Amino acid sequence: MVYHEFDESLSRYLLSKGDVLIAMTGNHPQALTQVVGDVSRYKLDVQALLNQRVGKLVVKKDADLDFIYYLFKDEEVQNTLANNSTGSANQANISKGDILGLQLTIPELPEQKAIAEVLSSLDDKIDLLNRQNKTLEQMAETFFRQWFVEEESELKPLSECIKTTSGGTPSRKRMDYYENGIHPWIKSKELIGGYILETEEKINDEALKNSSAKLLPKNSVLIAMYGATVGQFAIIGQEATCNQAICACIPNEDYPYTFVYHTIKSNVDELKSRAIGSAQQNISQVLIKSLDIAVNDNIGKFHLKVDPMMKKIKANYNQIRTLEKLRDTLLPKLMSGEIRLNYDSDDFDDSCDSKTHKNQVNPINQSSDK
Q: For 149, which DSSP code?
């Protein structure tokens, strides 16, 4: 970030916690990241100033800011904005006029508040679980640093401690390999730290028999070896397969997954610094195996301490995934009116805080699909 001295002439650009921001420049929805027209909440406690290609949504008296935030999260609204954008596919732009010119069906204020309450309660729970995971991860990192960085340790090549392997890609000419898939097949772009519990693609037993892809045991630690994702890592929460651009580190009884995962995590920068190549950076499996790691008698103690934390983190990830699917399923149905809410309008006057009325909002599904 860039820091800027503040004076009153900049007051119209001032942001405060809770403001809803919209991206006025970005990619088209197909890119999935940095999508033009996407919105987010400003959640920091410190004040900030608005960039010229970011808009701030300010509601009028008959609108609820939380509802407007979720309204702009609706895929139909985002697609409408993106389709009205100008510029190239990776430099799409929308204007203030494009946003204010949207023709939208908006319910009365009490219903807006009720809808926002249902969706925000899910997001609040997701945020809580994410914060809990961050705390647990920091605690595990502290134990690792105390017992393997600050205490005297022996350096050993990774190859003397665990086995490594790489994956493979079943032939794309045989699309039947990907039909009715039961084995998660991981690509390097999916290595974003933490647990991998779901993948874009799965392969079947026939693909395993006829390709270099192989089943990896649960809790294997994966490292991306090529390209833009080089050095990214993750841990698998179940048996899975991966492509050839990934190196899998297989834990064992002497070197359990808790130790292997945090060892890789603490050595990622070192691995990245060893990457070779200009057009495409890469780290080989041989290089990974030659990595010197710190080992001592604390490995068993570390596993006993951190294993419950890792299991809790994994359980939280599963719950987050469930809540996100529920929220993403409910959002368009609530916005379109397919699902309406039973609420008492007297409980949602202009001055009330809808958060205090959670028990008075009950969903009524108006479709035949329960």
A: I
Residue pLDDT, tens place only, 68-92: 999 999 989 988 888 888 886 568 8
Structure tokens at 276: 């070779």
Q: Burial level of 81, CB count in 10 A (0-12/13-18/19+)? A: buried
The H or E element that residue 311 is part of is helix 299-336
* CA 28 – CA 26 distance, rounded (Å): 7
Find the angle CA(200)-CA(316)-CA(264) to the nearest 5 degrees: 70
End-to-end CA distance of the chain: 46
| 339, 262 contact by CB (below 8 A) | no
Kind of pairing between the strands at 233-236 and 221-224: antiparallel
Helix, strand, or coil here: 4?
coil
- Give the three-class secondary structure for 173: coil
> For the chain, where are the E strands, in sequence order?
14-15, 20-23, 25-26, 39-41, 48-49, 54-57, 86-88, 91-93, 154-157, 163-166, 183-186, 195-196, 201-203, 221-224, 233-236, 241-242, 246-250, 292-295, 339-342, 362-365
Helix, strand, or coil here: 17? coil
pTM here is 0.84
